[in-house]
Design goal:
The chain is of the alpha/beta class. The protein has 15 helices and 13 strands. The N terminus is likely disordered. InterPro entries: Aminoacid_DH-like_N_sf, Glu/Leu/Phe/Val/Trp_DH, Glu/Leu/Phe/Val/Trp_DH_C, Glu/Leu/Phe/Val/Trp_DH_dimer, Glu/Leu/Phe/Val_DH_AS, Glu_DH, NAD(P)-bd_dom_sf.
């Protein structure tokens, strides 16, 4: 049995193969005591693990901290998903919302499974039914790794409400921010602002994008528009590099048609380099835009980049951050650099039940304004305090969350003394 923990709840619900209705809330507590390791004074407030015997669906929702508003964060699908991973990402969402000073709380959801599986739709529908108690009262589905706009539409259909998901296709009144490239656009805007701040001319600057997915491709396109020279991109198949610069416009267009295979086709007979080769290419700006923990201490010690802009969530280890800081490499932390998507999500949250669509020009303008200002502010805080840029950003975000917790009477004394801890 899972003992009572004030302010936190972990629940497991199973949908039986013979059930036609959404699974009933179970009072059986999750017995994995490792879940305690995920809890501190900030959260999580709730961990809900769900499963479905008919489809084999296994998933989790982590609601981290709702002091500033209801839980909001993306929903991902991965064959290697763990509860700990989702909890870490939910915590990142807590800081990300606070950093851009928008009033939602941190949350994240995930499904364990290959997003390319043939029965993906059935799995998504099972996941939506299993979380019907929480969605949309406490959490709203969003888009993250492994899910696209069409998948958000499945959630809406299953729960019979446009209010249960953001990131919907335009035909359903949504703002398809992955399709529009809003997150990657914000990454590029933050990069330009910080490059100017550290006297790194962006025109002609060599850029490497590690992870040429939705975020990476959009960042590459915007950086090219701003005059940078993209010399390397990578995806799960390998790395494509050219010191003279790649044809980003052609690559992004081909990616829409061929997906990851676009890089292999562009490489031709010479083939792609190893997938990790992107991290060792000579560059001025490195944009990790794929998975977490790709920049370790070794990569941090040898990279030639003067600026690292974290397009992915948690791509840099703690040791690597300190090494980069000590070397004088500027780092724009993930929850500052890639917050463009959540700004778009905030607009989408307001529009979920509206007959009017979001003005995307206004979204892009807000993303540029907020992310450029935040990126430069975090760098300035880092210089003043000697802390890493991530710690400086955390201090700013945590102070805002802590103020909300104190006003709502949620704040134990221990939390006050721990502001500044990741």
């Amino acid at each position: 049995m899972f003992p009572n923990v004030p302010g936190a709840e972990a629940v497991h619900r199973t949908h039986g193969a013979g059930d036609d209705q959404p699974p009933r809330r179970s009072e059986d507590r999750v017995s994995d005591t490792d879940l305690f390791d995920l809890m501190d004074d900030w959260g999580p407030e709730k961990i809900v693990c769900v499963s479905d015997r008919r489809t084999g669906m296994r998933g989790v929702l982590v609601i981290d901290n709702t002091a500033r508003g209801m839980g909001k964060g993306g929903t991902r699908m991965s064959a290697t998903l763990t509860v700990g991973e989702v909890a870490r990402l939910a915590r990142t969402m807590t800081w990300k919302w606070a950093a851009v000073d928008l009033f939602y709380g941190g949350a994240k959801a995930g499904i364990l499974g290959d997003p390319r599986r043939a029965d993906k739709e059935a799995v998504l529908r099972a996941f939506a039914r299993a979380l019907a108690d929480e969605v949309p009262a406490e959490y709203v589905f969003g888009l993250d790794m492994g899910l696209a706009e069409a998948d958000a539409a499945i959630f809406v259909d299953e729960l019979r409400s446009r209010g249960v998901a953001t990131g919907l296709p335009r035909a359903l009144g949504g703002t398809p921010y992955d399709q529009l490239g809003i997150t990657g656009y914000g990454v590029a805007e933050a990069a330009q602002a910080v490059a100017a701040d550290i006297d790194l001319p962006l025109v002609g600057a060599r850029v490497v994008i590690q992870g040429f997915g939705a975020v990476g491709a959009a960042a590459a396109a915007r950086l090219s528009e701003l005059g940078a020279r993209v010399v390397g991109v990578s995806n799960a198949l390998g790395t494509l590099a050219d010191p003279d610069g790649l044809d980003v416009a052609a690559l992004t267009a081909d990616r829409v048609v061929a997906g990851d295979e676009a890089l292999r086709a562009a490489a031709g007979a010479g083939g792609l380099q190893h997938v990790d080769a992107a991290l060792d290419l000579d560059c001025d700006i490195l944009v990790p835009a794929a998975r977490q923990d790709v920049i370790d201490a070794d990569v941090a010690a040898r990279t030639s980049a003067r600026l690292v802009v974290e397009g992915a969530n948690l791509p840099t280890s703690d040791d690597a951050r300190r090494i980069l800081h000590d070397r004088g490499v500027a780092v724009v932390p993930d929850f500052i650099a890639n917050a463009g998507g959540i700004i778009a999500a905030a607009y989408s949250m307001d529009a979920r039940t509206s007959a009017f669509v979001v003005d995307t020009a206004e979204v892009f303008a807000t993303v540029s304004e907020k992310l450029r200002a935040n990126a430069v502010e975090v760098l300035a805080r880092s210089r003043r305090t000697g802390a890493t840029t991530r710690q400086a950003a955390l201090d700013m975000a945590q102070a805002r969350v802590l103020a909300a917790m104190e006003l709502r009477g949620q704040c134990p004394a221990a939390a006050v003394s721990r502001v500044g801890a990741a």
